[in-house]
Amino acid sequence: MKSNQPWFVVLILAVVFGVGGDWPRFRGGDSNSIALDAKPPTELSEGNVAWKKELPGRGPSSPIVVDGKVLVTCSDGVKQDRIYVVCFDVDSGDELWRRQLWATGRTASHPTSANAAPTPASDGEAIYAFYSSNDLACIELDGTLRWYRGLAFDYPKAGNDIGMASSPVIVGDVVVVQIENQGDSFATGINCKTGKTIWRLDREPVANWSSPVPLTAVGSDAPSGVLLQSPSGLTAVDAATGSVLWTHESGCDGTSSSVSRPGRIYFPSSDGITALDTTKREPETIWNARRLRPGAASTIVDGNQVYAVNRSGVLTCASAVDGQQLWQQRLKGSFWGTPAIAAGHMYLVSQEGDLQIVKLSKDAAEVVSEFSLKEKIQGSIAIADNAIFIRSDAHLWKLAH
Amino acid sequence: MRFPTSALLSVVLLIEGVSTALGAGLDAELLKVRAIGPRGEGHEQAIEAIRKVSQAELDQLIEILDAMKAANPLARNWLRSAAERVVQRGDNAKRSMPTTQLVDFLRNTANDPHARRLAYEILVAHDAGFAGKWNMRFLDDPSLELRRDSVQVLLDQADKLNKAADSAAAADKFGAALMAARDLDQITSAAAALEELGTKVNVNDVMGFIMSWHLAAPFDNTDKAGFDVAYPPEKGVDLKATYSGKDDTVRWIAYKADAKFGIIDLNEAIAKHKGTIGYAYAEFFAENAREVEIRIGCINANKVWLNGKLLTTNHVYHANMFVDQYKGIGRIKAGKNTILLKIAQNEQTEDWAQRWQFQLRVCDALGGAVKSTK
Asked: Coil, strand or helix: which one is A278?
């Protein structure tokens, strides 16, 4: 097997960092919403709709793109207890398969959300579909179930009738989920191959919708840790063992998620965005920018710029070095989903369905294209295969050259 | 002619192997899947087993559906995915579904309701006319999803009759839909249509909400600490007793609700309090002992006791409230039964954290009202 190792390493790196055109989890392979090397269209019209497909259910979850397949989770039924994974061919949009499960946990949510709120994740071999009801299914890319866990069946008080939304991440062989609520509140690492619980950490019993983020140590090629964000602070955990590496007490937002870069963490605090230096034994605050308020959407850090869009559509760019504001741009509509960046452009879609493309520079922003999808959109944008993927409660679109 | 023993053994093994590959009995694999328990128990053994079950032939589909009977909800999902995979491979190979067996399986209400619904969906997906022929047969079905479809057909028919100005026939059908429906949206839809046609409907009564209560409050819940304090009503209800409450002496008051879906607003019935515990007590009379579900909706943290036995506890504040939000399963006895609720309000100051209310009904396992005889 030794001769296969370089190939294997390339595969892992491709999945972890999102090169090769995939978008394998919430906010892409780098958990920072940047599509490396991708060049999606920067001018949009009806002609760019490569395909549009009906979905069997609702969901603010984002599509993911893996190995020529677009995968979407949905939920349906009068109690939102029918949960789906649907797999489409990335080129043709043909539905390749769909799996349905019966939710075993609490399925209620605010009317604007749905059971299929968390975005699934993939390690290139299987998809890990997670739902507000805390059902977690590992389904191989050909549609075969590898394993399924009902985490609220295991811990019946886990749940939030407003809805849960934290998306899973994969670090090494471990899929990590954060289930934080007023009942059974915990984070857990589950073996990707066996579905077995490797570790479980009790978390404070407070509602939290933010997602875990892979942590890569300085000088390392692949992440080995995971950052858990909750309203009272950050906890870095060894993904393989669940050991706590460090904690940082600070008021954190409970919806938008952090960004991890080598030696840095940018987290949405209760007072704007805070940058942490994580090269020290104890993380140290570098700056806090009060005017950077991301709302529900998560922050993006692209080189030396930090971007945040608030709920009412004000996009703010600041320096990643010192947090100083560089510019602001008002956009059309209100925003829930996280935007994405590719080839110097930011792609944002408002809740009202207006997809806007903003050309980015250090000094200013320019809205270069607007295209209405004419449906309510809450999911985050995915960029892969030089194309844009967006889902509503009813449809999945591919927008391409 | 002599046949070498080793060759014979090879042939036997080959036949056995072919037989397994083609999907011989799935019993062993299905047992492993059904042995799945909570917290990952039995999953490692089930992973290999489900892979084999997923490779089964279409004529073994019923065996997979049948294995859902009495399976726990986890195993049921594993089995469902295997059944879907078997159907998918059959479709890809353009093979016919085992229609007769699926119809027989659907017809037998002793089978698992989820499995029967899946059988129905497979039949509908492969025969465009199947739903039209069958979807009125489930009005009293133990599968709530099948029942819902039949109720919807009835509602649609009633609506058409109403539009055609045949009010009497429409009212009959809306009435039948109201009695058969178990989902709130269908119940309210049928009730609203009947009201428009001039028939008074008491939805609270149809659904079995308890409207008459005795209330005692406020007891202390500062810092949410009172939730686990057993105040005197938890040790026995005496409707004539007085208690030392949070601010003053507390007495039981009789309260009759008339709000939609039996909502008791304690801010209105008692007075607005924060950091407070309230108790609600009702007596429920039955002719015979039976199992029931006590279903409540509550925006506040809550506990429910039936005849002194704690059925459910939910330490959750201001995270939505809806009909049948929480449920506890218990057994009522013939004669008088007692239901006690503890409703805990916290000290949040936000506008959306001021409600202090609950609703409660007694049902069978499918959500049909079980009503007090007095």
From this structure: coil
As a whole number of angstroms, the distance between CA B176 and CA A68 comes to 50
**pLDDT for res A281:** 83
- Rounded distance, CA B257 to CA A383, Å? 55
Judge: B316–A161 Cβ closer than 8 Å, yes or no: yes
pLDDT tens digits in sequence order for chain B, 374 residues long: 343 444 433 443 444 443 444 446 899 999 999 999 999 999 999 999 999 999 999 999 999 999 999 899 999 999 999 999 999 999 999 999 999 999 999 999 999 999 999 999 999 999 999 999 998 999 999 999 999 999 999 999 999 999 999 999 999 999 999 999 999 999 999 999 999 999 999 999 999 999 999 999 999 999 999 999 999 999 999 999 999 999 899 999 999 989 999 999 999 999 999 999 999 999 999 999 999 999 999 999 999 999 999 999 999 999 999 999 999 999 999 999 999 999 999 999 999 999 999 999 999 999 999 999 99
Residue B107 lies in a domain: no
Report the residue of B316, B318, B324, B327 to disrupt the A interface, i.e. the one with the largest count of A CBs within 10 Å: B316
Asked if residue B110 is part of any domain, the answer here is no
Q: How is residue A64 written in tokens?
A: 């993911």
Task: Please report whether residue B370 resides in a domain.
Answer: no
CA distance A280 to B184: 56
The DSSP result for B149-162, as a single string, is HHHHHHHHHHHHHH
State how many domains chain B has.
Answer: 3
The answer to whether B5 faces chain A, any CB pair under 8 Å, is no
Q: What's the CATH number where A305 sits? A: 2.130.10.10
Does B231 share its domain with B305? yes
Inter-chain residue contact B40 with A196, CB threshold 8 Å: yes
Tokens describing residue A146 = 């590898």
Residues of A in contact with B73 (CB under 8 A): 102, 104, 150, 153
CATH number, position B354 = 2.60.120
How do strand A300-302 and strand A305-309 relate by DSSP bridges? antiparallel
A282-335 pLDDT tens trace: 899 999 999 898 889 999 999 999 999 999 999 999 999 999 999 999 999 999
- Among A375, A386, A370, residue whose Cα is nearest residue A46: A370
Distance CA B15, CA B372 (A): 64
Provide the residue range defining the domain that includes A285.
2-399
* Strands of the sheet with A64-66, listed across from one edge: A64-66, A69-76, A82-89, A95-102
- Compute the distance between CA of residue B168 and CA of residue B166 in angstroms, rounded to an integer: 6
B336 and B251, same domain (yes or no): yes
3-state helix, strand, coil in chain A (%, to 5): 5, 45, 50
d(CA B27, CA B33): 10
Residues 6+ apart with CB under 8 A from B133: none
- The tens digit of pLDDT for each residue in A180-217 reads 999 999 999 999 999 999 999 999 999 999 999 999 98
What are the φ/ψ torsions at residue B264 (nearest 5 degrees)? -105, 115
The helix (run of H) or strand (run of E) holding residue A130 is: strand A126-130
Whether residues B346 and B231 share a domain: the answer is yes
| Radius of gyration from C-alpha coordinates of chain A | 19
- Same domain for B197 and B246? no
**φ, ψ for residue B206, nearest 5 deg:** -55, -40
For residue A135, give how far its alpha carbon lies from the nearest alpha carbon of chain B (Å): 9
Do B294 and B318 fall within a single domain? yes
**Is A195 within 8 Å of B43 when comparing Cβ atoms?**
yes
Joined together, the tokens standing for residue A144 give 């075969």
* Domain that residue B68 falls in: 5-97
Q: Are residues B160 and B56 in the same domain?
A: no
Global ipTM = 0.92
Assigned domain for B44 exists: yes
What is the count of structural domains for chain A? 1
B195 and B212: one domain? no
